[in-house]
Every structure is written in C-alpha cells, then in structure tokens.
Amino acid sequence: MKKLSVVTIAKNEEANIAACINSTKLWADEHVVVDDFSSDKTVEIAKANGAIVFQRKMDIEGVHRNWAYQRAKNEWVLSLDADEEVTPELKEEISKAIQSDEHVVYNIPLRTYIGNYWVQHGGWYPGRKDRLFKKDEFKYEETGVHPRVFYKGRCGRLNSDIIHKGYEDFAELFRGLNGQTTLEAQKWFDDKRKMSVGRVFWKALDRFFRAYVRKKGYKDGMIGFVVALNGALYQVFSYAKYWEMQNNKK
What we know:
The chain has helices at residues 17-22, 42-48, 61-69, 88-97, 170-190, 197-214, 221-249, and strands at 4-10, 30-35, 52-55, 76-79, 84-86, 105-108, 110-114, 117-118, 129-134, 138-140, 149-151, 155-157, 162-167. It has 250 residues and is of the alpha/beta class. Strand 7 (110-114) and strand 8 (117-118) form a beta hairpin.
C-alpha cells in the first residue's frame, strides 16, 4: 500500500495553516511544512496540528520548492499551499491514483475564492496545476517567477477540487500584484528581454479581452471585471518596474 506525503511551503500563515493540515489528516502519511522563518505563530500551529516542520529562507522559488519536496519521506507527494484545503472527494481520487503506476504526475483543478466568492470564469477555474507527483521524477525549473515543471512520464488528470482561499479581499489581490510584478520585472531585466510601451500596451489589452470576454469573466460581475483588469495591470506594472531598473542601471 503506497503512502502519501503532503508538502506545504509557508510564511506567516497562522490564519490558514491549521485548516490546511487538518484537511489532510487521517489519510496522508505525513504533512511536511517548510517555513520561511515566519514572524507569527505559523510554526507553533503547524507543530501543534501534527506537521513536521523545517525552516529555510525562500530564495528562488523553483530551488525552494525542489528542496521542500525532497524533505518528504514517501515517493508520492501532494503539493498544497498554506491557503489551500483538500476536499473529501479529492482525497478519494488521490488515494486511488497513487496506487497506480500509470502516471507520474496528476494535475488538479483549483477552486479559487476572493473573499467568499468562487471565481468561476476569466480563466480562473478550473485553473489546473500539477500538484500530485512522484518526487524523484518531478522537478521545478530553478527560476524565481512562474517556474515551469519538468517530469519523465505521463500526466493524468483528477476531477475533484483543491479549495484555494486565494484572497481575503481586493486589497490582498492588489498587494499580491505588486510583489509578483517586481519579480516579473526582475526576470525581464536579467534575461535582457526587449520590451516596449507599444508591446506592453497590446499585451495588457489582450489579457483583459481574453479574461473578460473570451473566458467569460463578465459572468462574475464586478469581481470578473477586477480580475481581468488585474491581469492587464500585471503587464503594465511589470513594464514600469522593468523600465525603472533599466534607467537606474544607466
């Protein structure tokens, strides 16, 4: 009978970590939390709820994730963020999937919320991600923003959701945008990417159109509009910071 390790990367997640860990209890063999030296009670709460805790400073996301997954003692790993929970239906699917050698990776749909609202359109759902895998046959690209995944073998699909309590409100969504665009701008700068105002303007319009119209973000009302606008602003803010880095270098 094959066993499962759950691995969670966390920093200052005292509001979420207990629910995350408890959603995997009784069926997962272990829950490993890799903490980025939180200043709140994340570590204490994680230990109190039965998790095995390691601490490591987050440097490059891909490097950090690969290091975290190697802390698991079992072959099969479920990667679960601190603001995510596993549904009972997904538990059943995972339990069956890991007994088979048909696939080395499974992608899982994410049901993401802003506040109490499930964002169902605009490209946010099902928002599948590769989260269940054999750790020795799966690796993240060792880059700092949007790292790709590499694996040897076949990828399967599970149908039940991970619940992602993504953002408490719009303010948290916009704070995330600020941090993500800083990393994106740094990636462009390091890669010496050729960017221009015209190109960025076109990419921003395209992102908004695809999310709001083609992927039917308008069906989510005001939230759908903000989500689409957020995607467009991602391009604008990234370019503004990239432009600033270039001028500071000069």
